[in-house]
Amino acid sequence: MSHRPTSASTQPPAGTSTAIPGKDGGPATDRQAFKAVESAAPVAPAISVCIAVRDRPVLLVQAINSVLAGAFGDFEIVVVDDGSVVPVQEALAEAGLLADQRIRLVRQRATGISAARNIALRVARGRFVTVLDSDDELTVDGLSRIHEFLTATGAGWLYTDYEEITGHGHSKIIRLPTYRTARRMLWAVMLRPRLPFKHSGMSVDRTLLEGLGGYDEQIPIKVDVELILRVLSSGLQPQHLPYPVVRFHRHGGNISRRRLAGLSVWYRLIQKYSMPRVPGIALSVVAFRALSELGKWLVTSVRR
């Protein structure tokens, strides 16, 4: 099933902020002004780093600065403010980032993470899109490593290792597995307690992601899991870059820790993407996934 990205207008450089009209109406964008900006826009960058955010101004600035401090220069940063109480534009202005022409900012009414990511996908101009969560950071050589791998292998989709940082100042490198087939990776996504991919840092050929329909806006969470299962079930296999390019900060606000709320979504995804569709297989996978999610929730609760 195709999930087309939400319509949005291209955002001028980060000196102005545009409100994207919602489904119930709202301020319209000045399309003629945007056409003028597009005609004067520089050559499309190699990579668009896309960040969707809501109410994380300090962490967002850290994420953006991690990209700007990197060794790779052929990029743009697309930030979609998904209805933050205090507009992201204010945080960027306070941090002195609004004048940076590499940052493109879009503001929309709060419509959810999937819609925000689809807006970023539509606005992006780079050949490749690199996802960065608003509370993560790229390493100094992160984009360089990604670009070198994509160029050397001709891959259209990659995922990477990452560094996990806890609130106690401890960190560890998470080494993710490499899979020989899309089918094996699909089953690993459904059965492995720790997901065998990290969405933040994932890099995709933009036209490929657009062709797949972008993110599914019908589910509230686990949108990254749905996307990767859809990709794998189509026979496409993301390539593994065995190098940590993202610094993942684990904290109480991580969306991924809404494990109980995600069980119903897991049930739907497993029912849809489990193969082969043998009676009882999907139910067994759902039961295993539920136990896994409950176990992780208990461990997290004890650590708090």
Features:
disordered N terminus, 304 residues, alpha/beta, Spore Coat Polysaccharide Biosynthesis Protein SpsA, Chain A, single chain, globular
Ordered list of secondary-structure elements with their pairings:
Elements: E1 18-20, H1 31-39, E2 47-53, H2 57-68, E3 75-82, H3 88-94, E4 103-108, H4 113-123, E5 128-131, E6 136-138, H5 142-153, E7 157-165, E8 171-174, H6 182-191, E9 203-205, H7 206-211, H8 223-233, E10 239-249, H9 259-273, H10 281-303
Parallel strand pairs: 1-4, 2-3, 2-5, 3-4, 7-10
Antiparallel strand pairs: 5-9, 6-10, 7-8, 7-9
Helix pairs in contact: 6-8, 9-10
Pfam family, one: Glycos_transf_2
Biased composition (Polar residues): 1-19
InterPro entries: Glyco_trans_2-like, Glycosyltransf_2, Nucleotide-diphossugar_trans
Describe what you observe in this structure:
By secondary structure, this protein is α/β, with parallel strands linked by helices. The protein has two domains: 18-257, Spore Coat Polysaccharide Biosynthesis Protein SpsA, Chain A, CATH 3.90.550.10; 259-304, no CATH class. Helices cover 38% and strands 19% of the residues. The chain is built from ten helices and ten strands. It has helices at 31-39, 57-68, 88-94, 113-123, 142-153, 182-191, 206-211, 223-233, 259-273, 281-303; strands spanning 18-20, 47-53, 75-82, 103-108, 128-131, 136-138, 157-165, 171-174, 203-205, 239-249. Strands 1, 2, 3, 4, 5, 6, 7, 8, 9 and 10 form a ten-stranded mixed β-sheet that branches. Helix 3 links the parallel strand 3 and strand 4 (103-108). Helix 6 packs antiparallel against helix 8 and helix 9 packs antiparallel against helix 10 (281-303). The termini are far apart. Mean pLDDT is 83; it is low at 1-16 and 19-40. Residues 1-19 have a biased composition (Polar residues). InterPro entries: Glyco_trans_2-like, Glycosyltransf_2, Nucleotide-diphossugar_trans. Residues 1-30 are annotated as: Disordered. Pfam families: Glycos_transf_2. Residues 48-166 form the Glycosyltransferase 2-like domain.
